[in-house]
Amino acid sequence: MDPGTHTVYVANHDDDTVSSLHVSGSWPTPTFDVDRTPLPVGKSPTEIAVNPVFAVAYVANYQSGTLSQIDAEHDQVMSPIQLDIHPQSVAVDTSTNTVYAVGDSSLDPNSGGLDVITDGQVTSTVRVAKGPQGVAVDPGSHHVFVSNNQEGSLSVMKLNGPNYEQVATSPVGANPAGVAVDPDTHLVYVANYGDESVTVVDGDDGTPKATVHVGGQPHTLAVDTATEPHKVYVTNSADNTVSVIDGSTNTAEPATIPVGRGPTGVAVDSARSTVYVANRDANTVSVIHRQ
Questions:
Q1: Rg over CA atoms, the chain
Q2: Contact 193, 208 (CB under 8 A)
Q3: Which residues are CB-contacts of 3 (< 8 A; sequence separation ≥ 6)?
Q4: For residues 279 and 240, what is the distance between their CA atoms, to the nearest angstrom?
Q5: What are the extents of the domains in the chain?
Q6: Residue 285 burial (CB < 10 Å; 0-12/13-18/19+)?
Q7: Is the CB of residue 242 less than 8 Å from the CB of residue 236?
Q8: Which of 20, 29, 63, 149 has minimal Cβ neighbours within 10 Å of its Cβ?
Q9: What is the pLDDT of residue 12?
């Protein structure tokens, strides 16, 4: 989600493209305009992160081992960034214009890597556990968090001089996938794909704070900081639902929200009180309006 242009970007994994959903107007009469010609990117795009300050969307292309760059203002694809990994996930620190991509190492099959990108180039690669799945960054502390899918843990990375190093490993649930950060509370939310839960971790020291039961096979998360209390939206890919977590109590609301088949991606437009969910098995995007 680009909050500046109110554009939603969707990675089409099997088509090697990205679709753009342009949103105008507000509730109760918004309009949604989907570009009929998706943008070509690298092979097997998985996730997207947007830097609204510079109007650039970054697309993690797993098979190509690249990040595609999309000029968000003109909907044009720029030159890709070659990585040292096969990226599964990407995150942007908007305050420093630093991009982080995590995935399987292209050099060592027994480990994963975190690539740090500045000015369109990989400036460092940090070795992480094998099979990393998700990455998120806290723009206040600049800490970076990596979910280790095969180890059931979350790595906490901090800047030490010019380089990042792992300073803590937090136990989470089974097969952790998506990661999201609340920049105000510095809490980190980890979707545990293998055991229907979300682990809440203190982003400062990596201490687990709570475990929240959600739906089947939770995949990705997004935090809405415009609500009071803050809300965390979790896609349950096996249940075709979205769970909502109260950020003040770290408990899930009793009812889930039905969406399309196989929800795997989620993004929040806080300014317009809207949540977008990419449904992998239905080739659709569900739109949720927060009351």
A1: 17
A2: no
A3: 52, 269, 270, 271
A4: 8
A5: 7-217, 218-291
A6: buried
A7: yes
A8: 29
A9: 96
Sign of CA dihedral 104, 106, 110, 112: negative
pTM score: 0.96
The tokens of 20 are what?
A: 């753009």
226-246 b/e with 16+ CB inside 10 Å = b? eeeebbbbbbbbebbbbbbbe
Do residues 284 and 266 lie in contact, with contact meaning Cβ atoms separated by under 8 Å?
no
Which of 2.130.10.10, 3.30.70.270, 3.10.180.10, 3.30.470.20 would CATH assign to domain 7-217?
Answer: 2.130.10.10
Give the number of other Cβ atoms within 10 Å of residue 150's Cβ. Answer: 13
Close Cβ partners of 216 (under 8 Å, ≥ 6 residues apart): 196, 236, 237, 238, 239
- Using left for φ > 0, alpha for ψ between -120 and 50, and beta otherwise, residue 109 falls in alpha
Which amino acid makes up residue 179? V
Take residue 233 and report the two structure tokens written for it.
Answer: 């939206």
Is it true that 7-217 and 218-291 share their CATH fold?
no
- The per-residue pLDDT for range 27-54, each reduced to its tens digit, is 888 899 988 899 999 999 999 999 999 9
